[in-house]
Each structure stands twice: as C-alpha cells, then as structure tokens.
Q: What sequence folds into this?
C-alpha cells in the first residue's frame, strides 16, 4: 500500500444529555488522544443554526484545540469562505499561525454550511457570494503572500504567514478549482459520496503543478466505526446511521446511544437515503477495516484518510481511533 497519512474531522457534536461545553471538551479530548497516536491533523467544520453542533465559531475553536495540544496540526474542514470576507479570514488564520506556528491548516469550502435562510443572515442577503469562490480564494492567497508595502489593504497578522490552503468539495466543482490552482483537495465523502470517484479523477487529471504542490494531494473524509469485534462495531454504528436519518427527515437529534435496530428500520425511503449518504462508511474490526480501507485507498490513490468518529460512548470512541490506527499500520 502507498504511504498515506491519517487524520480526523470533528464537528464538536453534542451528545444526548450533554451541553455544548461537553461537546467541546470531547473534541479536545479526541485531539489530545489522536495526537499521542500520531495522527497528522484534526480539522473542525463550520456549521450554523444546528442545535447539536458546537463548531460554528470555527476559528475560535481551532485556537482552543491548538492551545490544548502540542504537535498535531489543527485546522478547518472547512471555513465556508462565501460566509466571510477574505481579509477577515486572513487576519484570523494569520493570528492563529502566529500563536501556533507550523500547526494551522485552512480548508476552504463554497457551501453555506447551513440552510438558505441562515445563509442569507450570514451573507447579509447576498447569496451570490458563492459564485466568487475562486476570486475569494485568490484574494486570500494574496493577503497571505503580499510583500508589497504599497498595497492599500493588507492583513496583519496574516501577511507572510505560512498557512497552507486546502480546497474542500462535495461535488466536482471544487475539484476543477483545486487542480487549476495547484492546491491540495479534500473531498467530503463522509456525507456526499455520490460524486467522489468523478471528482477524484478530475482533480488528478487536471492538476497543474504550482509553488504550493508539485503533485496532487488528495484527502478523503470517510466515516469509520471500529471495535474489537464486527458485531460490536455494527451496533455502535447505529448512532451514526440514526443521526443521518434525523438529518434526512429534518428531525435533528443529539448524538444518541446505539440502538438494537436503526430507528428507520422497515422504512425503505429513509433506508435508501441513509445508504446513499453513508456509502463511504467503514464499519468493522481491525482485520476487516484493514482490508476494506486498504482497497479503498489504493483504488483511488488517496494520500490521506480523514476519519469522522460518531461513537456515543466516550471510551469506545477513543478506542476506535486506536483500532483504526492499528488497522492501517
């Protein structure tokens, strides 16, 4: 198997019976744990108007997690750039890089990270900002790289900061952009697997070497539920599948304990919808995961696997990170 890196995505998901502070503490605990295991990075995702997600102020949370860890890279998976002025993002991440040098990543997405009504509130009724994603990415690069003191608008801190940018995608659009700019590309297969294969092919085929990268670098985020035994992993995975069912039916719930059967058992429409959203989900013991993930990585020439971990039990959640690491040694 090719050399690859292992990392994690976290949304500071609120568990049943717990608070947003508990969710943030759980994120910090995970970051500290996977740092000891040698994971490459932990990314935090920007979402808004979601009662059971505590990562809306993503840059603030990145700073908190970075302050509680020592070596692991901490970044955004991602900052939804159309929600923000590039100057503000440059200043925020320039500040983070100043505080935690060599440890900050900036993943950028074009989606709102929420519903359209909330997107209007974020973007002050200007929903056209998503059409300027490429321009905003280039503006952001300009703020970081500027060395012309005569520029009228500059980012302090930010200017001269070595903050690596990553383009995020859940369809093929951003694959073209990441390839054209010669930037690394991260695909959200953990919830939008349908176009992953096509997007990966586009990115690899169209990639243009740049001062940032000589060769394409592909990160793929997938759901992985690991346990000592396959049956236990399948049981733990019901928390994940039930959470997705709540998203699909617009009955969002906190992350809840596993159930004997998924809550949508026997409802074909929801079964199909959940399956379609979670097609890139790997559930099993270390032996089965080693086989399945190795095949997946080799099939798509993946450079880095980024795993989500929606396990309710805190000890089993941390143990899962270890088992995933063991499976992919």
A:
């Amino acid at each position: 198997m090719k050399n690859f890196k292992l990392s994690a995505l976290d949304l500071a998901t609120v568990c049943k019976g717990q608070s947003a502070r508990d969710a943030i503490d759980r994120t910090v605990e995970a970051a500290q744990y996977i740092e000891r295991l040698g994971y490459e990075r932990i990314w935090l995702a920007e979402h808004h108007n979601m009662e059971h997600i505590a990562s809306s102020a993503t840059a603030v949370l990145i700073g908190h997690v970075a302050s509680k860890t020592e070596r692991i890279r901490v970044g955004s998976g991602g900052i939804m750039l159309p929600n923000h002025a590039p100057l503000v993002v440059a200043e925020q991440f320039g500040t983070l890089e100043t505080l935690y040098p060599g440890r900050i990543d900036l993943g950028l997405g074009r989606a709102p990270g929420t519903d359209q009504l909330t997107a209007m509130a974020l973007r002050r009724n200007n929903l056209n900002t998503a059409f300027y994603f490429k321009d905003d990415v280039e503006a952001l690069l300009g703020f970081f790289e500027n060395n012309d003191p005569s520029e009228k608008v500059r980012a302090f801190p930010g200017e001269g900061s070595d903050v690596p940018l990553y383009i995020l995608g859940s369809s093929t659009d951003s694959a073209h952009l990441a390839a054209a700019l010669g930037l690394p590309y991260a695909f959200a297969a953990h919830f939008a697997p349908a176009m992953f294969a096509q997007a990966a092919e586009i990115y690899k085929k169209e990639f243009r070497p740049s001062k940032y990268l000589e060769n394409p670098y592909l990160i793929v985020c997938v759901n992985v539920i690991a346990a000592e035994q396959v049956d236990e992993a399948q049981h733990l995975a019901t928390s994940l599948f039930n959470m997705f069912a709540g998203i699909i039916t617009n009955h969002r719930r906190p992350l809840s304990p596993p159930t004997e059967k998924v809550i949508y058992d026997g409802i074909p429409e929801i079964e199909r919808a959940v399956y379609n959203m979670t097609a890139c989900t790997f559930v099993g013991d270390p032996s089965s995961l080693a086989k399945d993930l190795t095949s997946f990585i080799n099939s798509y020439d993946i450079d880095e696997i980024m795993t989500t971990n929606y396990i309710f039990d805190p000890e089993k959640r941390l143990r899962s990170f270890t088992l995933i690491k063991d499976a992919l040694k």
Residues 230-248 form the longest helix (19 residues).
